[in-house]
């Protein structure tokens, strides 16, 4: 019965559908429908999923130039396997360049036959073909409690006129309800069938979970693909995807997660490989494509060998280059468990790196320190008392620590140079007299402590990857770069960096568009800026009348490496950066003709919302006078902070921090145009899938064009 129903539906839709109309997604054997990706001039990757078929070898893929499949140009028998979570990927070959194709999967024959929905895809032009290109740029599509209205708008407006979709990562989120940005009370939520293999987070009595086992990750992809609008996106266009952090774990680096901020070792190769395996199963990338539909995911394509950075020459006007910003990066320069009192850069190092005149100017603003190892020998009571207070602080933040371990940990950090400001603060918090008077501090050497960068807790993302003081952090990063070399900031890794240099400098394309999951635009709030300082209330504390760095998880956290990258891109005129991850919109002039476009996220909690929650929930920042007014001005603060800035050459030309949406890029032999489509974040909780006219009225459109190396507003 199901077979006939499917066939009848299919034939009726084909018969009544106008030009370009595709059959509606069928259920039956193909509930996740179909997808295509990674197009080439003569091939494209095709994807489907057939759950527990009675005949695993009875699947066929067909590719044709017309929707009626009268002229099948490629077909291949395929095998379905539980080993791949019932997913199937195949490369359709022998295709013509820059050609639209229709594809479908056919299961069984005769009375048992069942046909998938029909997908549409398009091969790339050859590098010589001078054709205009239009593509959509999307990223960050959290499903929990949020509707894909941005995708609905993309489908409504561009069904017939875009060539492909670029996805810059966070194609899934790994958690079932992180209260900092997800609301699982919605009907759109995720539940793992096996929570024993997941990571339990939050309140132990009412936890939420992060995927860790393969089944967890697979179930997330399956749930996301249950959304009818998202399925249509995959059915309509080939998608070219890179991953960001949430395909594995929030703010991850390599195979290390950051949920516990250093309290435990979160390095897990098994979890990373599970995440990658599910990604390669569900995402229509070239990686893992076997010869018969089975997906070859062995150690050669999994951590630490995964290579998903790749490039797509697209005619003579576009060369799309996708990087992997997550797999090879080192830890954040300030680790989440950095001891706040540790002097990260001492005075001799500062003098060597920066020179005496500069250090003499800034010296008063730095942190007086003592060598606690030496001082502790002379004053054992000071050492013991300080260790005891620090151990209490460790235990307060990490109840799993016993006193012996806490003392051992504290003493391990009280052997080298330690901030006297921090020690004084520890004593004051414990109700004791601070041991270092201003007179003593005045004669001590000075350096940069982690505390001066914003790290006040033993275990925290604050002061590590989120919300740091800009100037001390950049001093530290620069000193590390000068003394330890580039390895500490090598975000892309040597092999990827060399590959990127080769691709960019050798590409003859008019435009080299580098798709980058994390943003290069500075997220600087400069409270000393002449446009911003007057906005602060009189009672705003002096400590915060400084420059703040909102997240070091982006390229801001690797400033010298970013300069290196800018230098490389400067050698390849026509390079343009597109970025994701940040859930906000930015158009940025990085100088020397390099521009960056960051569109809004499809659905994930906006940057404005995340910053507001983080700041208002912060014990110190949340109490700053006027903080709510300042948060309401976040886009203006970010933009103004980059105007004629002494600390960055990048200038934000446009930004919005509370919108969702997508970006469409048009590329010709003379111009690159970015069209930003934005909708207020409040609309993400309403389903507009069947109301295109209302949805259309909720969007605003903003256009920027680059021509002759100059960026201007408008088309
Ligand atoms: Fe995201």
Would you give an account of this structure?
With 715 residues, the protein is an alpha+beta fold. The protein contains 20 helices and 31 strands. Strands 5-2-1-13-10-9-28-29-30-31 form a ten-stranded mixed beta sheet. A hairpin with a 3-residue loop joins strand 14 and strand 15. Helix 6 (347-354) crosses helix 7 (356-362), helix 6 packs across helix 14 and helix 8 packs across helix 9. The radius of gyration is 27 Å and the shape is globular.
Strand content: 15-25%
Helix content: 25-40%
- SS-based structural class? alpha+beta
Give the averaged pLDDT, no decimals.
94
Shape: globular
Bound molecules: fe (ii) ion
Which residue ranges are poorly predicted, with pLDDT under 50 across at least 5 consecutive positions? 1-26
Largest sheet strand order: 5-2-1-13-10-9-28-29-30-31
What is Rg?
27 Å
The major beta sheet can be summarized as: 10 strands, mixed
Count, helices: 20
Termini separation (Å)?
A: 53 Å
Total number of β-strand segments?
A: 31
Characterize this entry briefly.
The chain is of the alpha+beta class and 715 residues long.
Secondary structure topology:
Blueprint: H1 2-16, E1 34-37, E2 44-49, E3 59-64, E4 72-78, E5 87-92, E6 100-107, E7 114-115, E8 119-122, E9 133-138, H2 149-158, E10 164-167, E11 199-201, E12 208-210, H3 214-224, H4 228-236, E13 238-241, H5 269-282, E14 310-314, E15 318-322, E16 343-345, H6 347-354, H7 356-362, E17 367-371, H8 372-378, H9 380-397, H10 403-412, E18 417-419, H11 420-429, H12 438-442, E19 446-449, H13 450-453, E20 466-469, H14 470-484, H15 494-506, E21 511-516, E22 524-526, E23 547-551, H16 559-570, E24 575-579, E25 585-591, E26 594-598, H17 607-616, H18 627-632, H19 634-641, E27 651-656, E28 659-667, E29 671-680, H20 692-698, E30 700-707, E31 710-713
Parallel strand pairs: 1-13, 9-10, 10-13, 15-21, 21-24, 24-26
Antiparallel strand pairs: 1-2, 2-5, 3-4, 3-6, 6-7, 6-8, 9-28, 11-12, 14-15, 16-19, 17-18, 17-19, 20-23, 22-23, 25-26, 25-27, 28-29, 29-30, 30-31
Helix pairs in contact: 2-4, 3-5, 6-7, 6-14, 8-9, 9-10
Fe (ii) ion (FE2) binds at residues 140, 170, 246, 581, 583, 604.
């Amino acid at each position: 019965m199901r077979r006939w129903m499917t066939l009848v539906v299919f034939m009726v839709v084909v018969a009544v559908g106008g030009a370009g109309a595709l059959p509606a997604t069928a259920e039956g054997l193909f509930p996740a429908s179909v997808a295509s990706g990674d197009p080439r001039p003569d091939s494209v990757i095709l994807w489907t999923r057939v759950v527990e078929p009675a005949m695993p070898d009875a699947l066929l893929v067909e590719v044709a130039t017309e929707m009626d499949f009268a002229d099948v140009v490629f077909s291949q028998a395929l095998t379905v396997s539980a080993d791949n979570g019932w997913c199937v990927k195949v490369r359709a070959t022998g295709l013509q360049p820059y050609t639209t194709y229709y594809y479908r999967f056919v299961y069984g024959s005769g009375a048992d036959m069942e046909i998938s929905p029909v997908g549409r895809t398009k091969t790339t032009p050859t590098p010589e073909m001078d054709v205009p290109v239009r593509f959509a740029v999307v990223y960050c599509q959290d499903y929990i409690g949020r509707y894909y209205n941005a995708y609905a708008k993309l489908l409504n407006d561009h069904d017939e006129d875009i060539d492909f979709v670029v996805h810059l990562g966070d194609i899934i989120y790994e958690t079932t309800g992180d209260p900092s940005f997800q609301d699982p009370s919605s009907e759109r939520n995720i539940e793992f069938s096996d929570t024993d293999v997941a990571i339990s987070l939050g309140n132990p009595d009412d936890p939420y979970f992060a995927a860790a086992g393969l089944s967890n990750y697979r179930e997330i992809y399956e749930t996301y693909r249950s959304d009818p609008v998202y399925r249509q996106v995959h059915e309509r266009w080939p998608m070219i995807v890179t991953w960001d952090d949430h395909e594995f774990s929030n703010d991850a680096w390599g195979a290390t997660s950051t949920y516990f901020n250093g309290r435990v070792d979160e390095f897990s190769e098994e979890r990373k490989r599970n995440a990658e395996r599910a990604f390669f199963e569900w995402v229509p990338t070239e990686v893992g494509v076997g010869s018969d539909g089975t997906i070859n995911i062995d150690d050669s394509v999994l951590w630490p060998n995964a290579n998903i950075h790749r490039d797509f020459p697209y005619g003579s006007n576009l060369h799309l280059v996708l990087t992997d910003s997550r797999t090879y990066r080192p830890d954040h320069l300030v680790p989440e468990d950095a001891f706040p009192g540790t002097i990260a850069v001492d005075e001799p190092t500062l003098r060597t790196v920066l020179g005496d005149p500069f250090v003499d100017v800034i010296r008063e603003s730095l942190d007086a320190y003592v060598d606690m190892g030496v001082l502790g020998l002379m004053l054992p009571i000071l050492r013991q008392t300080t260790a005891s207070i620090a151990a209490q602080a460790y235990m307060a933040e990490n109840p799993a620590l016993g006193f012996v371990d806490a003392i051992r940990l504290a003493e391990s950090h009280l052997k080298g140079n330690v901030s006297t400001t921090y020690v004084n603060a520890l004593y004051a918090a414990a109700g004791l007299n601070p041991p270092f008077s201003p007179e003593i501090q005045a004669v001590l050497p000075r350096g940069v402590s982690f505390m001066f960068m914003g790290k006040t807790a033993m275990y925290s993302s604050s002061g590590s990857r989120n919300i740091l003081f800009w100037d001390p952090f950049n001093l530290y990063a620069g000193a590390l770069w000068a003394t330890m070399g580039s390895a500490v900031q090598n975000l892309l890794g040597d092999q990827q960096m060399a590959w990127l240099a080769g691709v960019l400098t050798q590409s003859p394309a008019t435009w080299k568009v580098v798709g980058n999951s994390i943003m290069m635009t500075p997220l600087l709030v400069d409270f000393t800026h002449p446009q911003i300082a007057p906005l602060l209330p009189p009672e705003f504390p002096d400590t915060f009348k400084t420059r703040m760095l909102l997240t070091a998880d982006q390229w801001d956290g690797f400033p010298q490496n970013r300069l290196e990258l800018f230098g490389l891109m400067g050698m390849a005129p026509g390079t343009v950066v597109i970025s994701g991850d940040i859930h906000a919109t930015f158009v940025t002039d990085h100088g020397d003709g390099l521009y960056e476009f960051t569109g809004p996220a499809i659905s994930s909690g906006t940057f404005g919302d995340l910053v507001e929650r983080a700041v208002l929930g912060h014990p110190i920042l949340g109490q700053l006078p006027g903080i709510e007014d300042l948060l309401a001005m976040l886009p203006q603060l970010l933009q103004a902070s980059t105007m004629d800035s002494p600390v960055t050459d990048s200038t934000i030309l446009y930004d919005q921090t509370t919108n969702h949406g997508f970006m469409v890029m048009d590329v010709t032999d003379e111009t690159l145009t970015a069209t930003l489509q934005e909708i207020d974040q409040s609309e993400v909780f309403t389903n507009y899938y069947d109301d295109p006219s209302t949805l259309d009225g909720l969007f605003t459109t903003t256009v920027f064009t680059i021509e002759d190396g100059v960026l201007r507003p408008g088309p």
